[in-house]
Write a structure and sequence with these properties.
The protein is of the alpha/beta class and 453 residues long. It has 2 domains: 339 residues, Spore Coat Polysaccharide Biosynthesis Protein SpsA, Chain A, CATH 3.90.550; 100 residues, UDP N-Acetylglucosamine Acyltransferase, domain 1 (3 Solenoid), CATH 2.160.10.10. Helix content is 23%, strand content 26%. It has 12 helices and 26 strands. Helix 2 crosses helix 7. It is globular, with a radius of gyration of 22 Å.
Length: 453
């Protein structure tokens, strides 16, 4: 890490987690150590706090996590550069949302991306297409780079070596690295020196995560240091991180990688652990600075051990541990942390080709403020799509099978596809439809076909 010129603080954070692993400290959170959260405040029940939001808008920054490459979908570029809606990429829509909000709110509102070394160049290329962005940025840079850490061999617990491609021996340390990277980049001090103390942080692949004036006002009014937006867990996201409490009553986040194998059924019980972390977070930067200063720059987040192949494309390559932390886990580090239940419209994540197809369809539309919203003509507020990974997981395969257009899903509740299926133009799906092709030949759904149940 020193040879790679990584900051000393980054090295210190990594070593603190590595030493815990070597000492045998478990990276799991057992069911017996936590309690379910029965209720949280509901956004829809709140009085409008937009005026309070306007009062602190000039002290606010929007921060997007933008380090992901989307390798699971076969991408070798930033996932935010993927086509999202109406010919625009995720990144372009985020920028247009920001420009709309600056205009509507008549304010300066800085936008910052936390990039990885792999996404910085592509992101900057898109940002240069919007010269008007510089206005309202308050001389704050558009991006900073998250750190990297070595992959650790499962067997020997030593740093992995891979001479044929040394770059593959490094991995990002999870989005929990944001707290370290904000310091090592100097950005945290720069923001505070500009009088900015409220940060709204979200994933760049969640286009439902816009800055809401009333939410900002509520957060400011509560005088809390940390607020997590949560939604009701459903069967579709039962494997994602959930909100819980410690036995002493403090809030915490448990991710799937922190679930003991004996606790899987409990972890996925959506009636017990009812609230899902959207990774839409609100943080008081001055309080974050205070916490960091009190702990030598380190927030002691629970570490996560992800077991992977050293070379993701080579199943025969050695097994390695990727040491990661989750940004939302900091909820347990602030005594005054709160959670807020928000509608599903604020959580439209695109992690798989299933979700991407839904976004491409007419089930969602781009409104006048460049926000992704559910098509108002839909009668159902949910859409479940299950595509056969063998034929649809990679983006090139997905695009090839819908080259003539995405089906009309306005009246679709669930679409399940098993086997190799290609769609013609103007296909319409109604209800709960399953298409199964168990032959070796591709099934082609003819143009203008209507399939209904």
């Amino acid at each position: 890490m020193t040879t790679e010129c990584l900051p000393q603080l980054c090295i210190d954070v990594f070593l603190s987690q590595y030493n815990k692993m070597i000492a045998g400290e478990e990276s799991v959170i057992r069911d017996t150590a936590i309690e379910a959260v029965e209720n949280v405040v509901d956004m829809d029940s709140l009085a409008d706090c937009s005026q309070q939001g306007k009062a602190v808008l000039n002290q606010t920054v929007i921060l997007k996590l933008n380090g992901g490459l989307g390798t699971d979908m076969g991408l070798e570029k930033a996932k935010s550069l993927l086509l999202a809606k109406e010919g625009l990429s995720f990144l372009e829509i985020i920028v247009k949302q920001l420009i709309s909000q600056r205009h509507n709110f008549n304010c300066d509102l800085p936008l910052i991306f936390m990039n990885s070394f792999a996404t910085e160049k592509g992101t900057q290329k898109i940002l240069r297409q919007f010269p008007e962005l510089i206005q309202g940025q308050k001389n704050i840079p558009f991006s900073f780079i998250q750190n990297k850490v070595p992959k650790i061999l499962v067997d020997s617990k030593e740093p992995a070596l891979w001479p044929q491609d040394p770059a593959k021996t490094w991995c990002p340390p999870g989005h929990g690295d944001i707290y370290t990277a904000l310091q090592t980049s100097g950005l945290l001090d720069q923001l505070l020196n500009q009088g900015i103390k409220y940060a709204f942080i979200s994933n760049s692949d969640n286009l439902g995560a816009n800055l809401d004036l009333s939410l900002l006002g509520y957060f400011a009014e509560q005088d809390s240091s940390f607020m997590m937006e949560v939604t009701d867990r459903t069967e579709a996201d039962k494997k994602g991180g959930h909100l819980a409490r410690t036995v002493k009553g403090g809030l915490l986040l448990r991710e799937s990688a922190q679930c003991h194998s004996n606790d899987i059924n409990g972890f996925q019980d959506i009636n017990k652990y009812k609230y899902f972390n959207t990774n839409n977070l609100w943080i008081r930067l001055d309080r974050l600075k205070q916490l960091l200063d009190e702990n030598n720059g380190i927030i002691d987040l629970p570490f996560i051990q992800n077991i992977k192949n050293l070379d993701p494309g080579d199943a025969s390559s050695p097994k390695v541990i990727q040491m990661e932390t989750a940004m939302g886990a900091a909820i347990s580090k602030f005594k005054d942390s709160i959670a807020l239940r928000v509608p599903k419209s604020r959580f439209i994540p695109i992690k798989t080709s299933n979700e991407l197809l839904g976004l491409w369809s007419n089930a969602f539309v781009l409104d006048d403020n460049n926000l992704i919203v559910t098509n108002p003509h839909r009668k159902n507020d949910y859409l479940i799509i299950k595509l056969d990974n063998k034929y649809f997981k990679k983006i090139d395969d997905l695009q090839a099978r819908f080259a003539e257009g995405v089906p009309d899903l306005l009246e679709c509740q669930q679409l399940t596809i098993m086997g190799d299926v290609k769609f013609g133009s103007n296909v319409k799906i109604i209800g709960n439809v399953t298409l199964c092709n168990d032959s070796d030949e591709q099934l082609v759904i003819a143009s203008d076909t209507v399939i209904a149940t």
